[in-house]
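Purpose: get a first structural picture of the assembly so the mutagenesis plan has something to point at.
Setup: two entries, given in the order below. No constraints added.
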Amino acid sequence: MQKLINDPDNYVDEMVDGMVSAYPERLTRVDDTKVLTRDSLIDGKVGIVTGGGSGHEPTHAGYIGDGMLDGAAAGEVFTSPTADELDTLAQACDTGEGVLCVVKNYEGDVMNFDTAAEMAEIEDVTVEQIVVDDDVAVEDSLYTSGRRGVCGTIFVHKAVGAKAAAGGSLEEVAAVGEKVIDNVGTMGMALTSCVTPAKGEETFDLGEDEIELGIGIHGEPGTERTDQLSAEEVGTHLTENVLDDLDPAAGTEVAVIVNGMGGTPLSELFIVNNAVQSTLEAHELDTWETMVGDYMTSLDMRGCSVTVCTVDDELKELFAAPADTPALTRAGDDE
Amino acid sequence: MQKLINDPDNYVDEMVDGMVSAYPERLTRVDDTKVLTRDSLIDGKVGIVTGGGSGHEPTHAGYIGDGMLDGAAAGEVFTSPTADELDTLAQACDTGEGVLCVVKNYEGDVMNFDTAAEMAEIEDVTVEQIVVDDDVAVEDSLYTSGRRGVCGTIFVHKAVGAKAAAGGSLEEVAAVGEKVIDNVGTMGMALTSCVTPAKGEETFDLGEDEIELGIGIHGEPGTERTDQLSAEEVGTHLTENVLDDLDPAAGTEVAVIVNGMGGTPLSELFIVNNAVQSTLEAHELDTWETMVGDYMTSLDMRGCSVTVCTVDDELKELFAAPADTPALTRAGDDE
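Result (structure tokens, whole complex):
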């Protein structure tokens, strides 16, 4: 399998450089690290940071900018950033108001963010952490105790970023993050495996006519392998499973992400979206907003995930607030 | 090859529905057509429309919204919309100030837009057309007399959309479109063929270790097939070829798109971007802005294109002006 790369060993390093050279006025790389921060911090604002393995672009650094993240640490492909880098990240993004770390629930990420928090606290940086575990497919998994953190993290970034931009305290910002986590669920599926740069071939075998439901963003096993399903069957199955977990009352408003895994044409995501919306309607839910695109990918995997978040006035205001990042821009209401 | 579809015959129809159900407050479908328009037209503004074959998403309808397009017609996959649909499109987007059609240079598109313009003029809609032919790779091609229209069209949409939003007359709007066309060039490459929904298998054969340089967005033949190249070689080759065509003076400012073909991980595009920027620097050009992502795709093709547009104060102002569309949002300077 061919890829547009140079030396696989330099893949993440070169990607980080490529992001900075694309957005030199937005992003700054901390020397000798794979930590990116926004070009200049905002005094008096709680810092919002995240990090994790690479291969999920535009997650993580694509969401750095006004109204979302202040910084992100990139690990090697599908590998947690080191505690040292996460400590550097937290320190780099603190203006004295403390730093909120948005952690996806993988054992390596949780452990390294924990250690980094202890290291940063020694340097008088107050750190809070919230752990996203939105994947409803499986309870434990290959790299996870408890549920995996996947595309619902985008809603967490948006809410905590907006709350911090509005002047929220560290405690208040963490609280809205927890609120999103309590109200969001995601499930994914794959038509094909992803191909990591180091290996250069498919990570797992999936027959030409097989698909895998409930798969994770690193290709971790899901709930079942089945024969090929139609877009309608896929969209319905994923949405039903998420709703089964969230169990929202009829009439509830929801925000939705139909997310591509990296190798899926946008047109196919729109076709899946029809079934997602029909399923929401069948449950008498009211779609407040839908996002369709590649928000949290798995390299070149073909497949999609469906994320549903129930929203109230507070979350709607935070989700709709202005944001200006490479991967997500909201013009705001006054445009 | 599996795809997330239902009946291939309904692919475009369902995609158009999926776009409307994702963005019901932004997009309206004209009954019994594959024409999408913005939810409500702006009185006194020149209408900006485009169209072409499907399979290039987010092109075309993804650029409908404030500051860009008023409407777009979707043909079947890689097939021009009919003259009837394009006539409907022009009429639907006219508020009395006339309509500018942005046409990519393919024989079917040019012919059908020409016929549609004649039909619309009968209904007293003043129509101007501009034809984008930014692909520097080949002079004539499978579906083309003269050069192909590819990803440089995004810059055309942005400039004419901003000019129209600023109150420009039909003549003035067409003039800035021609100005972009005169100053933009693109070249693409592919690692793999795309797979159309109808055929379900690769459109053309490319060996496991081969790539094709100068390829079109429908998989039309390029300039050469070669053994696998590194990201650096690809980025350099494409950029050098575009610059060879544009021949900008040292010190010129340029806007750049590193565009994915649909199946390429975003991380790889950032790696290619390093070579693009190095090449621009070697030519003593000053990068004013870079966009990296999937702007004009070829279904699930793996590959990329590089677009360079030389910019002056007028084009920079138009490119930076606010826009709010599903695929491209600009917050504007006052954010």
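Chain A touches chain B through 64 residues (CB under 8 Å).
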